[in-house]
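The authors assume throughout that readers already know how a fold can be written as discrete tokens. For illustration, here is how one protein appears when written out as sequence plus structure tokens.
>
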Amino acid sequence: MARNAVGFGEDELRTLAGARSFERGVGYVDAVSGLEVGDSAVFARVHGSDVYEVELTLGEGTGTGVSGWCDCPYGQEGNFCKHCVAVGLTVLRQAGIPRQRAAARARALGLEAWLTKLSRDELVALVQEQVAGDRELRRRLELRAAAAHGDVETLRERVVALVDPRPFELFGYVEYADARGYARQVEAAANALRALTAGGQAAQAVRLAEDAIRMLGEVNGEIGDSDGVVGQAAHAVVDAHMQACRKARTDPERLAQWLAAHLLGDASDVMDLDPLDYADVLGPAGMARMRQLAAEALQRSPRGWAEQYLMERLVKAQGDVDALIALYANELLPCGATHLRIAEELDAAGRASEALAWAERGLRDTTTEAHVDGHLIDYLCARYTRAGRTAKTLSIRRDRLRAERSLTAYQQLRTAAGAVGGWESEREAALALLREDARQGRGRGGGLVLLDALLDDEDLDAAWREASSGADDRQWQQLADLSRTTRPADALAVYLRLVEQVKEPTGDRAYERMALLLQRARDCHRALDTLGEFTTYVCALRAELKRRRKLMTILDRYGL
């Protein structure tokens, strides 16, 4: 379809979603249902692991192309997800969309014209009729009416009822399937609080919002909110609280005490409330009071996570680097992660020499530790490399391989040694270390790291020798993949053994893996000029597994 028919094309969808989400969205086109075309937007449902609601806003004539919203977890983070792609492709493939948009525009204009002609009594009767048949609409209008009349008691009762999860609970817990319904109620409570503030009752809205936030914190552990929809609705309540505080010009000291009590309480993580969002309401006096309260709490509980987090946020906001360093230094993690945080803060403050000194202290302090934060090591190596101290970088990487036998440590040592032109001698020493581990069965699976290193170096002859002493299926397949053209007979034996192992599991993933292995086995037979043997093998395999219809379909797709 031409781009100007709906305001966007496939290129826009691909750009918005990214190549991966776009390709996945193509596979969801057949899962789109309930397409509803409006004047400036399209609505639909997409059936995946759940049923998701999608809205595409069309920007025809505005130069904005298209934007999308989806209530899947990825879409709620603001991403143009695969479900949005599927709906967009569905729109592009329907030739009648422009006509449907024109019809929707005409209907909207017709509705507006009809409503405009109704008398006041007729409008009231119409609303009452709709309210009688729509309980949710009635509740929303009752809340707006109570807010407009300043009926705080009614609003309090309704807000408390809306944030109460018990109507959704089964055996004391709100299941995942009911979380969205509960989230809609919490969002309605946030809207009521906003309406109360707009109606000139901001001070009452502040108190009521604080009650709602407290209740939400108390019930947080009773809700299956893996998609984060309840948390998102709870954030709306916090936003309503902030709006009311600004409008009511809440006393800074009182607000500081409430924030500190909430952030240091047991339910502080339900909305991840950030005190700095209230900085404009707190002002200098309120922020000072917050820091005083945080310092007192930290003195009572020096290792408390909430106490440390609150003090950290406040100190950072005031730009007091030395106070922040002192805070971190009170609780240095043995892995060196805290040393790195201090170094990064000092770097950001333009104090590079002090940053390096803290990082080096971290390396010294972790000498006897089994686990050292890899980012600290990377930081030091980067600093030394930039300063031309490549020998120091090599020494650190060498020590890390001795302490931590892993492919990553081996690769980093190779990079460091390559920078000074000494990889050959360094490699022999590193491999000797890994061979000793393999001989004694130490490290991650004994010889597995050694074999990973040889495969990464593409030293295939050595890898084949070591594999016979012990390799896992992943390594065997990687070795066969790298050797298909140079050692097709050896690679073929690996593929056929792996095919035998994958016979038992069922399901698309197992069948796709079998098809991949068979394709690579065919490549080996082709190199050996024995395709007839492969044909015989596949025919026997298909006869053995003929009852698995999905497998047969997949094998047909790959010409097997």
Notes: Residues 16 and 238 are 31 Å apart (CA to CA). Residues 176-198 form the longest helix (23 residues).
